[in-house]
Design a protein that fits this description.
The complex is a heterodimer of chains A (647) and B (367).
Chain A: H1 2-21, H2 28-31, H3 39-45, E1 52-54, H4 57-62, H5 68-75, E2 79-82, E3 88-91, E4 100-104, E5 107-108, E6 129-134, H6 138-141, E7 148-153, E8 160-171, E9 175-186, E10 189-200, E11 205-208, E12 221-224, E13 230-244, E14 247-261, E15 277-291, E16 296-311, E17 319-334, E18 338-353, E19 364-378, E20 381-392, E21 400-411, E22 415-428, H7 432-436, E23 448-463, E24 466-488, E25 490-514, E26 517-535, E27 552-562, E28 565-574, E29 577-578, E30 585-586, E31 589-602, E32 605-614, E33 633-645
Parallel strand pairs in A: 4-7
Antiparallel strand pairs in A: 1-6, 2-3, 4-5, 6-7, 8-9, 8-33, 9-10, 10-13, 11-12, 13-14, 14-15, 15-16, 16-17, 17-18, 18-19, 19-20, 20-21, 21-22, 22-23, 23-24, 24-25, 25-26, 26-27, 27-28, 28-31, 29-30, 31-32, 32-33
Chain B: H1 2-20, H2 31-34, E1 36-41, E2 51-56, E3 61-63, H3 66-70, E4 79-86, E5 89-95, E6 99-103, E7 121-127, E8 130-135, E9 149-154, E10 159-165, E11 170-176, E12 179-184, E13 189-194, E14 199-205, E15 209-215, E16 221-226, E17 237-242, E18 247-253, E19 265-267, E20 274-283, E21 289-299, E22 304-312, E23 315-320, E24 327-331, E25 339-344, E26 350-356, E27 360-366
Antiparallel strand pairs in B: 1-2, 1-27, 2-3, 4-5, 5-6, 7-8, 8-9, 9-10, 11-12, 12-13, 13-14, 15-16, 16-17, 17-18, 19-20, 20-21, 21-22, 23-24, 24-25, 25-26
Classes of the chains: A mainly beta (647), B mainly beta (367).
Chain lengths: 647, 367
């Protein structure tokens, strides 16, 4: 608490001194571009210079089917470990899947039992904007935001009338997606309904070198993937009311029912008797009242999450968690050059997991106090201090500060140059499984605790018809008390490793637009060394790169549009990955995809047809060792937009 | 003359027999090539990575990936759940894919693995011309194991001839007095099956679930009593089974007996000492107590345990070298890192350590 008091005194005295001697700079709100009044938009302001990327509308349009992993693996240099079935996890900047916060409203949707979310179960179709924050943001997003954060965002249209869109996709290997979006509103009240059905048989052919008769017939055989079907469905309902442009209430209810067979590896593919499956049912509700009309702006939020996972239809082995979330924050602009924000976030968690003893846990409470201070002390200079303290029932969590700054030495109509630097602490509270699973849970665990230092430079050049961005970021992340499950007579979670992850990220894009012709080129590269530098059990130092963490990843995309006709091609490279700590590796691979979008006008309504070829070169590759991945495939989509808006 | 020709023909026919028995013929499995400790590393669950490590304690020659070396660099695809020798053949029980792999003493695989009617196989024991293989069955529920069974595998015909239904998760097995004793890992009992008619004749009630056996000179059995996640129990330790009376005669309590599916129980060459893996609480420098792995000896005569080696991380197995009674402790702290084998004298003095593959579960010695 004393940290807050110190910060409070410091940051309320300092601006007064500054304002007395410095000329007035533009209003804070003028200098930060906010997309919309959302939780995330607010967060962005308090992270000047942070690397935050947004999937473009075209990228989202291309990867509208299936889960989030499809879009991220094609258009970002973030490594996604996945098989061809429905299991995929993210590894942001060399960190573990549980080190990425996935924010939906004020909810981090990562499983409380596992610590991470299956990206395949997060349907891209349901979200209008998908934004990625690279690096630690625990001071703002709380536990788990060590490697990065993903924001699943919605747009509000506030239009009068009725509009909607319907999408149907048919693809290779039994892929089908039907999606519907309906928007109705009167300018103040708005209802947005989105629903989808996604199915994929996943019966793709592949060369199988690991077939059961390989001793007598050593050559690879032509095989077809078995038992890797996916059947997902979901609905997201928004109901929003705008009292005024700066005062509104929003609510989102999201239900997702995800089922997938657990893809067998290549050597088990012909074993026709066993079949494993996982069914997830998730309900997430978030409502938020925002009032920015007065000097003291405030926001109140409440949410509820029900997560239910069922393995192989074994009803006895229930894995359910319920949580109630309350959130409140207020902010105030001070002396036109600064702003502070105070927030409180509370969660009441009730697990119902067959392996937890009621004696150990019946419920758990989390409370977070957060303070942020944003200031523009000189022209072109922005800085933020964020502080957070979380309390968890029976568990100690570190005090979490972050300090970020961005300086813009050059800002002309043609040229823009920004340099940024940040230092931030991050942490992760161990999952419920880590602490309470049977007699193997370890309530004495320490939180994972890291520091991230980052520097970046961003140059933008604009000269009609060209716009180009170049961005380079360097990061150094040191995470201590990394939790792993180890065998200590019994398997137990333990704070084992200290991991250092460091690297360079490059982003370059070039936009050309002249009349009806437009073109976009984008290149991303990440070089990431991530090593366990200390093993607290064995005392060993660095052995090698972390497993399933490629040193090199990159992607490139190019599209050309003429009027509303678009042709696109994209490629992604995933470098060599270690699969164990004995030096076994999987080779890198480069995948190329291409397609086109064709506009049509049917009954005065806009219609689009899209055709894609995925993995054009029919590359046979493995993302996870021994798991087959599909070769060349095709996808045909029809999107019909219906618009009955009133002027 | 005709008679002489007949003799020559007869001699010609039998000559190869005598030639085959020529003492100058090379031994197909020479002792100097075979001799050593073989460690079977489970690998990464469902992701292969199983391997075999060969270590010769006399020359200290270490060969990791020995299966690959002997089989044209082929990977060992299944996770090896159990390995053992029976009638000069080495049998590997593999999961994902489920199969029975047969190797010659030089660890060469000459025929495809057998998968048919082997669903989630666990352990095997040989008797006469058969292998009895415990199996969890298709889609195990990991709670009651209603579909588990024993597969009776004909070595001669290379197929599963019979399925003996045995719900409750059969694990380790031993043959004694013409009966098959099966440690049940999901119900508190030991099943007894008559090998005359392959029917479960009785169950021996135990205070906890059981995992593996060691047979003594009277063909009675020592069995591990363990607490598992699906069937927790406070009464862990060693049980002594009278195989004639089908009774649990005595329980020797020991806390935290390892519930691992690996060689957690073994005996020295004459059965005068048993080795058992369990957990132990160790005081850290900060004054906190942490749970660590430990190896214990058990004296069957006095019925007492003694700590053999403590402060172990990732102890999966313990075996005794029948040639000199040295003790090999198999450790694998994580499922992605190399394991190691720590060698001790019978008195508990540490001698040597060598690196093996991921998750070493079983080991045996060949001369």
């Amino acid at each position: 608490m004393r940290h807050f008091l110190l910060a409070w005194c410091f940051f309320f005295i300092l601006p007064e001194q500054l304002s007395a001697i410095e000329p007035l700079y533009p209003l804070v709100s003028d200098s930060v571009l906010l997309d919309e009044i959302t939780c995330y938009g607010d967060q962005k302001k308090y992270q000047p210079g942070s690397k935050i990327e947004k999937l473009t509308p075209l990228q989202q349009e291309i990867a509208r089917e299936g889960g989030l992993e499809q879009a991220l693996s094609r258009f970002t240099p973030i490594y996604i470990k996945s098989n061809a079935g429905g299991l995929s996890t993210i590894r942001f900047r060399g960190t573990a899947p549980s080190h990425t916060a996935i924010q939906f409203g004020g909810i981090n949707i990562n499983s409380l039992t596992l610590g991470h979310a299956n990206l395949s179960n997060l349907a891209t179709f349901l979200f209008d904007r998908i934004e990625l924050q690279y690096g630690s943001s625990s001071a703002l997003n709380g536990s788990g935001a060590i490697g990065g954060a993903i924001y699943l965002e919605q747009n509000n249209l506030w239009e009068k009338g009725f509009s909607g869109s319907f999408r149907y996709t048919a693809g290779s290997f039994g892929e089908q997606m039907t999606g519907l979006k309906v928007v109705a509103g009167n300018g103040k009240l708005e209802s947005i309904t989105k629903g989808f059905l996604f199915r994929k048989e996943n019966n793709f052919p592949f060369k199988n070198p690991y077939h059961p008769n390989r001793i007598s017939h050593p050559e690879p055989i032509d095989d077809v993937q078995q038992r890797a079907a996916i059947d997902n469905k979901g609905v997201l309902q928004e109901l929003n009311y705008r009292f005024s442009p700066n005062c509104l209430i929003k609510s989102m209810a999201w239900f997702e029912d995800s089922w997938q067979q657990i893809q067998p590896n290549m050597q088990s593919n012909s074993d026709s008797v066993s079949s494993e499956e996982i069914a997830d049912r998730n309900f997430r509700f978030w409502t938020q009242f925002t009032n920015n009309e007065h000097l003291l702006k405030y926001q109140l939020g409440a949410g509820y999450v029900h997560d239910n996972q069922l393995y192989n239809k074994i009803e006895d082995q229930i894995i359910v968690t319920d949580r109630l979330i309350l959130d409140a924050s207020l902010k105030q602009n001070l002396f036109q050059i600064s702003e502070y924000k105070l927030g409180i976030h509370y969660q009441y968690i009730v697990p119902n997991v067959y392996a937890y003893s009621k004696e150990n846990i019946e419920n758990e409470q989390h409370i977070n106090l957060a303070f942020s201070y944003y200031i523009e002390p000189a022209e072109g200079l922005k800085a933020t201090l964020n502080l957070r303290q979380q309390w968890v029932t029976g568990f100690r969590v570190p005090f979490t500060p972050s300090l970020l700054a961005e300086y813009i030495p050059l800002h002309t109509p043609k040229n823009y140059l920004a340099v940024s630097a940040s230092a931030s602490r991050s942490y992760r509270v161990p999952t419920l499984n880590d602490r309470f699973w049977g007699d193997q849970g370890n309530p004495d665990l320490l939180p994972e605790d890291g520091w991230t230092f980052e520097g970046g430079i961003h140059y933008r050049f604009r000269n009609h018809p060209f716009t180009s961005n170049l961005r380079i970021n360097l990061f150094y992340m040191d995470i201590d008390n990394w939790i792993e499950w180890r065998n200590f007579g019994v398997w137990k979670a333990q704070n084992i490793q200290r991991v250092v992850s460091q690297g360079i990220e490059f982003h370059g894009d070039l936009h050309f637009e002249n009349g009806d012709l437009a073109s976009d080129f984008m290149l991303n590269y990440t070089g990431n060394l991530a090593e366990p530098v200390e093993n607290k059990v064995s005392g060993q130092g660095a052995i090698q790169q972390l497993i399933y963490t490629p040193v090199h990843t990159g992607n490139v995309s190019w599209n050309v549009s003429y009027r509303k006709y678009t042709v696109f091609v994209d490629g992604s490279y995933t470098g060599i990955r270690y699969t164990d700590y004995l030096g076994a590796t999987l080779p890198g691979y480069f995948l190329i995809n291409a397609g086109l979008l064709l506009p049509l006008k049917v009954l005065d309504q806009e219609t689009r047809i899209s055709l894609q070829i995925i993995n054009i070169l029919n590359k046979q590759y493995q993302n996870e060792k021994y798991y087959a991945m599909p070769g060349r495939s095709f996808k045909l989509s029809l999107t019909i937009n219906l618009n009955f808006k009133k002027p | 003359m005709k008679k002489l020709v007949k003799h020559f023909i007869f001699l010609g026919l039998i000559a190869p027999i005598f030639m085959a028995c020529d003492q100058n013929d090379p031994d197909p499995f020479p002792s100097e090539q075979i001799k050593g400790c073989y460690v079977f590393n489970y690998g990464l669950y469902d992701s292969g990575g199983s391997s075999i490590t060969k270590y010769n304690s006399e020359t200290e020659e270490l060969t990791n990936y020995y299966y690959r070396a002997q089989n044209n660099q082929l990977e060992l695809l299944s996770n090896i759940q159990h390995a053992g020798i029976y009638n000069d053949s080495i049998y590997l029980i593999g999961n994902a894919p489920d199969q029975l792999i047969t190797l010659d003493p030089l660890f060469r695989q000459t025929r495809d693995g057998i998968s048919e009617k082997l669903a989630n196989p666990r352990y095997f024991v040989g008797h006469e011309n058969y292998l009895y293989i415990s199996c969890y069955g298709e889609n195990p529920d990991w709670a009651d194991m209603p579909s588990s069974y024993i597969a009776k595998f004909s070595i001669e015909n290379q197929n599963v001839e019979k399925i003996i239904s045995l719900p409750g998760g059969p694990e380790g097995m031993a043959v004694a007095h013409g009966k098959l004793f099966v440690a049940m890992n999901f119900i508190d009992s030991i099943a007894v099956i008559s090998l005359d008619n392959d029917h479960a004749v009785s169950y021996i009630a135990t205070p906890s679930v059981t995992s593996y056996f060691v047979k003594d000179a009277q063909e009675n059995l020592w069995v591990t009593l363990v607490s598992t996640h699906s069937d927790p129990s406070m009464e862990t330790g060693l049980g002594y089974i009278n195989t004639t009376q089908h009774t649990l005669e005595t329980v020797f309590p020991l806390n935290g007996v390892s519930s691992g599916w690996s060689s957690v129980l073994s005996a020295n060459s004459d059965g005068s000492r048993l080795y058992l893996l369990a957990s132990d609480w160790v005081e850290e420098p900060a004054g906190t107590w942490v749970q660590k792995g430990a190896a214990y000896t058990f004296d069957p005569v006095s019925g007492t345990f003694a700590l053999f080696a403590g402060n172990l991380t990732g102890a999966n197995g313990i075996v005794s070298n029948p040639a000199n009674n040295d003790v090999y402790i198999l450790t694998g702290a994580s499922v992605t890192e190399a394991g190691s084998v720590r060698i001790y004298t019978e008195e508990g003095q540490f001698i040597h350590e060598f690196i093996c593959g991921v998750s070493p579960y079983w080991a045996f010695f060949l001369e």
